[in-house]
Design a protein that fits this description.
This protein is 53% helix and 0% strand. The chain has 4 helices and no strands. The chain is globular, with a radius of gyration of 10 Å. The termini are close together.
Length: 68
């Protein structure tokens, strides 16, 4: 699995781990159904939804750690 970064697009993140959507939703990010998800970065989406980008990326990377 790939490590998540704040520069990664939301769509790429969603395709990288089956539980990524749950992480976004836990942070109040409904980006999963947004047309901008293909081009918007995790950081930009987090900021737009008033979420902490570092916390979102940290939670996404914990998914990868648990998969190892």
């Amino acid at each position: 699995m790939v490590a998540f970064t704040k520069e990664m697009s939301i769509l790429e993140a969603l395709g990288s781990h089956p539980r990524a959507r749950a992480v976004f939703e836990a942070h109040g990010m409904t980006c999963c159904v947004c047309l901008c998800a293909s081009s918007e970065s995790i950081e930009a989406g987090a900021i737009m939804h008033q979420a902490d980008p570092a916390a979102v990326v940290g939670d996404l990377n914990r998914l990868v750690e648990r998969s190892d």
